[in-house]
Amino acid sequence: MSSTNAHVIWHGKKKLRTPPNLSINTLGFVFNFWDTAGKHKIQQVLSALFVVIMVERRYSNRIHREELDEGVVEKLARNLPSKTSMCDKVKHSLRCTTPRVKRSLLGKIPLLLWLPHYSIKENALGDLISGLSVGIMQLPQGMAYALLAAVPPVFGLYSSFYPVLIYFIFGTSKHISIERIRVATAVTFLAGLFQILLGLVHFGFVVTYLSEPLVRGYTTGAAIHVIVSQLKYIFGISPFRHSGPLSLIYTVLEICYLIPKTNVGTLVLSIVALISLILAKELNTFLSKKIPIPIPVELLGITIATLVSWQVNLQEEYGVDVVGEIPSGLQPPIFPAASLFVQVIGDAFALAVVGYGIAISLGRIFALKYGYKVDSSQELIALGLSNSIGSLFQCITVSCSMSRSMVQESTGGKTQVAGALSAIVILFITLWIGALFEDLPKAMLAAIIYVNLHGMMKQFMDIPALWRSNKTDMMVWVATFLLTLLLNPDLGLIAAIGFSMLTVIFRTQLPKYSRLGQVPNTEVYWPLEDTNHVREVPGILIFRSSATLYFANAEMYQDALGKKSGFDITKILSAKKKLEAKRKKYEKEKAKNPAESNVSDMVEEHEKDVATIQMDFELDPSFPRAIILDLSPVNFLDTVGVKTLHGIVKDYGEIGVEVVLACCQSCVVDNLQTGGFFNDKVTMSRLFATVHYAVLHCQMVQTYL
To answer: Hey, which of 233, 251, 448, 678 would disulfide with 144, CB 3.0 to 4.6 Å?
Structure first.
């Protein structure tokens, strides 16, 4: 007998409450212990109370626990409020209200959300210093990266202005800075269009298919393409521009053929520029903790190179290729050449996906660090508008820059205003100062690109690290790198994603199959091979696969179950069918010739075979009487998976072994229902919420049999 109300124990003037489900017998034990131990030993009394409560709860769990199958749970769930119908959901989504319009407008144009709350006192100074610093960096890097798209350097300046302003309006990250990628305006327009469409349908999750090893392997391979493309500026040669698969190899072979024609002046300038920039970068790193703003190494480099080129007249005297005419002012909008869209659609999609993947990854790093949220779909729209609108003004594709984003953060930039200020710096340079850099050698810009790729080259150290941690990820890294080198970045990305998906499929085809045992005195079940502290439940096999069940691994699931259970189910069913055929033959012969003696021999042989099969199962204690399939790792079932489970239930049921399912998610139950798993013989009562409920059910069935 137990009380439903909390019991009260008085200790002096203190009142102690016991749990409401504590039995009267338990209280009697505690009061007896109180009298024996002495009322002053309250700690000992409470300790005894705790022990008794735990023992009583454990005992009550064992005695009074009722197993709940899915059928019982479904009946209980009928009393709960019903789910919202699909029609109501559609009506709700189409309902137009003032708060919803306002929320949608603020979501699509984040500037309207954060700018009215902009704190000049807290953010203005940091954003001003950050904007000036990033703007100074954008001048040399913008001109350098324009060479990657085989366009005049001035287009790099355009790409540092228009897209940055557009991102200022539509972007949600406060710290990332926009940079150039080596493509032309037609690719830029298509890439932006892809990003806008993906953002509108909330397809931001597409980057989940770009794992970190894949992205790092891809960017390393792309960096090799960049290095090879800039060799012509380092050596002062003019190789033919190849395209398509294996174009990198063709370009390298042609450069090797043209090396004897190297312009010595250009090569000397390139070597001096590379050494100077590397030393200056190292000095910048050394002084990073001592000075608040990094030294503008690239700006100093192009300024000195321009002055030397102008004074020595490198173009006329030594044949060094220079930037040439830089028109002042901004260009009128021009729609990209639509005739090129079909040719560059692959490049555009690759750039759209990879550019977004890099931007959202970096944006989330800063968002996590500073406690704000980055909207993945809105980032797609912001980048897409930056690219598509920027392409109308002869801009090339943009994404985020790790180096300039770090500078923007380290110099005190706190909001998108820093990016807008850097764009104003570029506008000032484009309108009035750009013409001063017409004598800048292109070799200097190539050297800037090489030095900035230093971080990319460090990614080769991922290979030994991944070899030690995860060899599959290492294979993805190496395969992505090689595919990018051989097939070019567009086809290489598609092939790399395909290879990455194959590794996932192969891993689901080779999961870990386990027999589970019970941790003593608990409801926890662990694999027997993982620990020695579990025991197998007598007469019950608890089987679990570490992967979901679908067409690619359904047959292996059945084979593993047969090995773990000890049953050769195919052989047993075959023998049973043969015996059944003999029985039918015997009955047929008996009906035709009831007096023949050989029929008696056939009967004896038939009965002997049946007895042999039955004796094997009844006397061998290693064979389970019930099988519990733990489906907790399964998140979906295709038609093959449903048929596999139905076949297991049917086949093992024919030899007297009950099969039940445990830990099925609601989506898996739906797959079972729509796949025709349930019928008059196989009902919802075979499904249990936990493995322990299934064990209790099987033990009860075995007890009453």
So the answer is: 448
